[in-house]
Amino acid sequence: MPHPAQRVGTATFVAGGVLLGLLTAVALFLGSSREVVLASHDAEVRPTLDRHVVLRTGPLLPDLRMAYDGPVGVDIRLGKTEATSVEELVERYAFIASDPAAQEAKVAEAVRDMAVSAGLRGAAIGLVPLAVWLLVGPHRRGELFRGLGTRKGLVGGALLTLLPLALWQPWERSEETVEEQQAWEPLQEFVGESVPLPAAAQALEIRTGPTTASTRRLLLSAVDTYEKSKEFYDRVAEEAAELDLREPSSAETVAILVSDRHDNIGMDRVARAIADAAGATAVLDAGDDTSTGQAWEAFSLDSLVEAYDGFQAFAVTGNHDQGDFVSGYLAERGWTMLAGEPVTGPGGGLLLGVDDPRSSGLGNWRDETGLSFAEVEERLADAACDSEERIATILVHDANLASEALERGCADLVLGGHTHVQSGPTEVTGENGETGWSWTNGTTGGAAYAIAVGSKPRRDADVSLVTYRDGRPVGLQFVRLLTDGRWVVGAYSPLLRE
Asked: Where are the beta strands (DSSP E) in 418-460?
């Protein structure tokens, strides 16, 4: 039976290990950081204990902060981005701020990841004294305890006590920075009482200094963009939920088709409201979610993923999604990126697709480079016609890429975008006598050109609803938001087999 002193010693070591683990975990957590792409910037996220969300925007723009009632705060330092002017950058901030859910979720995920990592490391370090206690054994532990009262024991204890202090070095003083010399001021006071701020911005504070006066005009412009964007998209999202759309039967599956979003995250919650109103459970993305395919546009992809959380999600990339960033980013977040091989799609039918050859890798032949549009068209047709089970849907960025597959009669339906103008359904009778259809969605982002960021769509914004029964496409319906905020709901177009 263990001696009472040994039981006390064991309990002390256990308590010490737990305390050491907790202190280490907290220290590691507060000293950790994560690099993420946030609000079109490379950004560094750090947890803090001051219970504020602080946004450090760099040398040209003032920092912002807002009180947060959670257990910890966060410090976000923005780094490099792609923007042609400060004005463009500020307008982009305002637009993203009008629908921040995806960016907030990304920061929260980074903080949780740091907390879990610090907790695991702290637990590992906290186990060290316990492991040492067990490895030393009772005999050696007794010798150590008896040695605590000796001169060597006292010197060793003193050194162990001083070790944390030496590592901490509280006597070190850093030079006061320009940032620390600037004060925080409520944003409402900074812009003046004559400019009413939206409710969401009432708690914002701005770090004032010699350069902030020159940014007043930019901030007022951003507030205007924020208000117009949020008001417009909030209103049309509420209206979208009440649209009179065809209701699917219990035997049918509905997928929403989006294309050519071109970074317009405002339309994501509108499109999701349409999808919910139509009973959709899947999303088909025909590409051009971005304008350049670069990492700074991750905010657009974050919004897309957030909007269709819980849906079956399938996508191809468009000609503006250049490179492999877009496809890789979506694939890492659980989306099925079509790559020239049939997969089980909405309703259980086969779905085939491939990225636009003007942008990125191409299906089973993606290791080859320099393939022309016509070559990819032929290979896609071969993949469709070689399938043992008939292809229900081919998803491409440009419907012309699947023209040959329809002409051979190897697919029921081709879905695309690219032209920013809705067209179809166009019936095609194939060489084998089988009937197929082609349908082109307009621009979901309301994009006039390659980018659609703005307080409202720059041209009519479209989504399409595809109805499946027994794995086959049986009907199509478009929903269009006009630039003046009015709605056009297209008639449901049954396909021949219905």
From this structure: 423-429, 435-440
